[in-house]
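Notebook p. 47: complex prediction with LLP.
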Amino acid sequence: MHSLPSNLTQLSTFPQTSKANDKGHLMIGNCDTIELTKQYGTPLYVIDLETVKNKILEYTTSLKRYYPDSLVLYAAKAFACTAIFKLANQFNLGIDVVSGGELFIALNTHFNKEKIYFHGNNKSEEEIKYAITNSIGRIVCDNFYELELLQTIAKENNKIVDILIRLTPGIECHTHEYIKTGHLDSKFGFDLEHLDNVLEYLTKSGKNLSLKGYHAHVGSQIFELEPYLDVIDILLGQALYTKQKYNIEIQELDVGGGIGISYLNSDDPISIDNWAKLTSEKIQKKCKDLNLKLPRLICEPGRSLIGTSGITLYKTGSTKQVPNGRRFISVDGGMADNPRPITYKAEYSAIVANKINKPEQEVVTIAGRYCETGDILIKDILLPKILPGDIIAISNTGAYNYSMSSNYNMVPRPACILVNNGQSEVIIERETYSDLIAKHKIPSILI
Ligand code: LLP
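Predicted complex, structure tokens below:
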């Protein structure tokens, strides 16, 4: 865990191996981040292997302690990258994929197929065929259109497909409106009042589908525990109903994504261990009360597995002092490599990676390089005096940054490197200008 000297509390949102060297440079995974920027350029995504491994182990060991029959799926949408899929597979995690593309990476990395769970509210026919013909572990069925498609495609391929049913639990939680998913007015999942229709379909027509369990996901970046516990009440209530009325016993309970993380020093999410303990106890007690067999507990953390391991290094360039107003410091990246601030008003912490031991001196706004007023990475942050060419490190960019990045303004995507024990290696190469036009074609009419 973090054991930072008190003068480095500004590193508390950074990866676990973060420290300063005697030059006053930020070190991650025992690599000098300033040297990394010289070697790989900027902007640069850096992932600290030790932090990812520790987060994986926090989930798996605490769940094994409190709920032995459990499986942690890595939510690939947080950062879908071959190297990270390999790591997840090596740690015997499962994986939650939401598209043919993520499924392709999983199959291509020889991910244990039984542990691949396929989510999504509008999987295409091709994607469903791809999943079924590759005999992946589970398909998480979201709606009636998909239910019928699944049955048809499973029958055509002479397969029995194991499915989970995604339910809309009708739970409100405190997070950004765009990343809430469990409330009633949501595009995801079957409403509870339609569960009978699903179960009748499975009994009468869905002979190629085998119902293994229920899934729900209340939302992302949640700090409260109640929504996680409420969802268990709802899912197990439906499990009891299903057993009593249809004589089907649920074997798996998939409680969705993981807990929130600290983007700011003031953020105070629950710990993974506490979440695992309370979730496990809740399921055990409720199953006892309802006289249900204990199902396998599945969870699908993304952000809390990979988020904190990642930082982004940017180089500063121009500055602008608004008369009697803000001081903008522009960096060489922004909304295309981190769309979270402009999309969700997400807040981040930063330090000047080459001036860690320097006193904080001025309040600045870190602006991106994209042609859009809203392209601001951090508003009003207290930092040491910044000059052009300084390196800004933003923490907690391991999740939903690269995976949501774009080529807006035709800027190539940055490289991503993995650091560990003083070694660094590229896991995603920096894009080139040629990559930007690799798929462009000139129509014959213009030649
Ligand atoms: N399972 C399901 C069904 C999900 O929809 C999600 C996230 C997860 C698991 C993983 O949740 P996590 O452990 O990462 O909280 N782009 C947004 C986050 C969208 C999350 C969508 N679903 C952001 O940057 O905050």
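Notes: DSSP finds twelve helices and 21 strands in the chain. Residues 226-246 form the longest helix (21 residues).
Next step: compare against the earlier run before touching the bench.
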